[in-house]
Amino acid sequence: MNNFSNVVIVVEGGGPTGGAERVAFETVELLSAHGIPVRIISSASQIDQKYLNLPGVTGIALGLPPVWEKFFSKNRILSYPLRNEDRSLLPIYMDALKGLNPEQTVVHIHGFHSHFSHLIISASLEQGFRTHLHAHDYGYICPNTTLFNYPENRICELDPLSTACQSSACISATDQNIKQFRFRRAITAFESKKLHERLTSIVCPSPFAREIMAKKLGDLGKLRVLRCPVQPASPDKLNPAASQTYLWIGRLTAEKNPDVALKAADLAGITLTIIGDGPLRTILEKEFPHHNFLGWKSPEEVNELQSTARCLVMSSAWYETASLVVLECLAAGIPCIIGNRSAATSWLTDEENGITFENGSVTSLAEALEKAKDDSAIDRMSENAYARYRQDPCSPENYTRDLMEVYNLK
Predict the structure, then answer these.
(1) pLDDT (tens digit, 9 = 90+) per residue, 51-83?
(2) What is the pLDDT of residue 86?
(3) Range of 205's domain?
């Protein structure tokens, strides 16, 4: 029995354009299917009509610009009050909540960095709404959202929101002003308003992400793990040992370490199939012409390629928060090779359902790829991957069950 009647989904987007948005709008679909009225509050100028046509779903598209446009205004009178937050957002957001009973309504925030701000969290709480923050990234504690030092291409080890964090050149020079803006907002939310102590829950996509957040926030009882719904690469268990396709999926950027994967593949004498695009593609294609660069593919095409894979290789240098592509593969019995500092370690045990390697190490990854050449090892890991996932799958049904448990918190 639910102790709420309505749900508000707050999202920075008008449709499933990115990871956070995909989960937000899939949540809308599932809630609608369960007869729960939903109000979408979007920062976009319009909301995908597909979702507005769902039973019980209404939407408000606010058409908000990036918040730092005002912050960097040449008009000092306009920009000075925005050092921490844009107060002009408050009446706009409050108007979007108009008519909802706080005692019967849950607010589920899926993003606030670019068009909204921490202000919407405090506004929801001050009005008495049960408010849940979905941590699709580490933005509540990290001003660049990823706990990653981009110029040095490594995980940031500094205490988030410390003086050292503020002075760290962890992002491109052109984005330093945006980082400082976000830092000021985060300090206000963390130290002055202590929003993490007042939120009904902070939802983390994996046990790994929860642990990372707890290092800064303390092991709050309100830090909850909520696994995102996953579409398996195949409804049935596949036979990856019959394949010689080593699959890499992701954006071709430095923090994803595609060069590490390609160099390791060369050492191991295998060919990688790369699904993805990005600023490094042209350089990598010239340096590694004997590997297969396919660019971005449709979800259906990705599933088809996954179904013919021997294993998935994920070389990302940063933490991630869940690594859904790993779960998609494990669900179909495809072993995965991942870095030992990745959120995907929540789903994988070394040489049981996949192989871990030392993050950023070409040699360590090459050794893992050598192990993956063994058909018997692939067979064993495939069986384990499929069986382990099926014990408690990340299905829409299980997501909805766990979501209702979170929503019923007070």
Answers:
(1) 999 999 999 999 998 877 766 555 544 444 445
(2) 67
(3) 6-229+395-407
Does residue 297 fall inside a structural domain? yes
> Which amino acid appears at position 31 of this protein?
L
- Residue 66 neighbours by CB under 8 Å, 6+ apart: 114, 115
Q: Does a structural domain hold residue 235?
A: no
Question: What single letter denotes the amino acid at residue 4?
Answer: F
Is the pTM higher than 0.90? yes
Phi, psi of 377 (to 5 degrees): -65, -40
Residues 188, 319 within the same domain: no
Give the dihedral sign, CA 267/272/276/278: positive
Statement to judge: residues 201 and 274 lie in one domain: no
**Please, what is the average pLDDT of the chain?**
92
Residue 326 lies in a domain: yes
Say yes or no: 79 and 150 in one domain.
Answer: yes
Residue 82 pLDDT: 45
Q: Identify whether residues 371 and 399 lie together within a single domain.
A: no
Q: Which residue has the higher pLDDT, 374 or 299?
A: 374
State the total domains in the chain.
2
Q: Reduce the DSSP state of residue 49 to 3 states and report it.
A: helix
Residue 341 exposure: Cα atoms within 13 Å on the Cβ side = 15
Residue type, 345: T
Question: Around Cβ 377, how many Cβ atoms within 10 Å?
Answer: 15
Contacts from 87-95 at CB under 8 Å and sequence distance 24+?
A: 87/119, 89/64, 89/116, 89/117, 89/119, 89/120, 90/119, 90/123, 92/62, 92/64, 93/41, 93/62, 93/119, 93/120, 93/123, 94/123, 94/127
**With 90 as the cut, is the pLDDT of residue 173 above it?**
no
Answer yes or no: do 246 and 318 share one domain.
yes
SS3 366: helix
Residues 91, 189 within the same domain: yes
Judged by DSSP in three states, 389 sits in helix
Q: Is the pLDDT of residue 268 over 60?
A: yes
- In tens, the pLDDT along 332-364 reads 999 999 999 999 999 999 999 999 999 999 999
Higher pLDDT, 219 or 159: 159
Neighbours of 214 (CB within 10 A): 14
